[in-house]
TrEMBL record:
GO terms for molecular function: endonuclease activity. This is AP endonuclease. Keywords: Endonuclease, Hydrolase, Nuclease. Gene3D superfamilies: Divalent-metal-dependent TIM barrel enzymes (3.20.20.150). InterPro entries: IolE/XylAMocC-like, Xyl_isomerase-like_sf, Xyl_isomerase-like_TIM-brl. The keyword Nuclease applies. Residues 32-298 form the Xylose isomerase-like TIM barrel domain.
Amino acid sequence: MANPITITTAPCCWGVDDVKNPHLPPWEKVLDEAQVAGFGGLELGPYGYLPLDLGLVSEALNQRGLKVVAGTIFDDLVSPSNRDNLLRQTEEICALITRLPKPETHPGQRYAAPFLTVMDWGHEERDYAAGHSDRAPRLDDVAWDAMVENIRAVATLARDTYGVRATIHPHAGGYIEFADELKRIVDDVPAELAGLCLDTGHMAYSGMDPVATLRRYWDRVDYIHFKDIDSGTYREVMGERIRFFDACAKGVMCPIGRGSIDYPAIRTLLTELDYSGYITIEQERDPRNTGSILEDLAASRSFLARTGF
């Protein structure tokens, strides 16, 4: 890569997606293993996983030489009644991440980290239709406009009060997943308010070509997630009625380089387009299946290094 790239990770590699899951590992273990795996940074994870205690988290990060590169809103973005909850999360997350040790800003990086990734989640009818654009229900205009207003409110608060760049993350099983929804949200939320965090795994899971989609929306891409998809497991789960994270528990996400996504082509594209900044590698899994996490992260990092990242 011509420009500097920092590869980071996220708690979802340890199965941390639903903070109510009783099987989640202690947050200190995630930080320990992120350090052992050689990462200099990671995401905060879902709201409520890492404590919102500035002193405690700062000390834990400093002891391990880690930086937090993004916070996460992973919640119902559609319901108007959830607005106050979304804004409270935005306040608390941004108040923390902007006071933690600051990640480096690389030459050529559009916006400084930490970011606030914003994802819609929590709708059973879409969760069971993850990856199936043909059968996934779409929001009507009233509900879509309500979601847009919630996203605008979150992004405005993050930007104007904390100087944090919100990045909208299309996510399998949410109401921003498929190509038509990505185009619509880009049209409806202006660039000065929010960018995109495009995730190679979610794009592929949802039937989009990661290379073509990154190129199409490049002027809005501020932050990137990498993951990979096991093609055999993907074919299997696409033939089932299954929730997205249940598909992940079956191993649909695999170490980068062992799946179907064309990372040499992505590297060529990012080099051509002069991307600079942070790329977070992820591999969602059942939190009870973390025995191979360090091996999987090492495999992903080794493959990316050989590919030129």
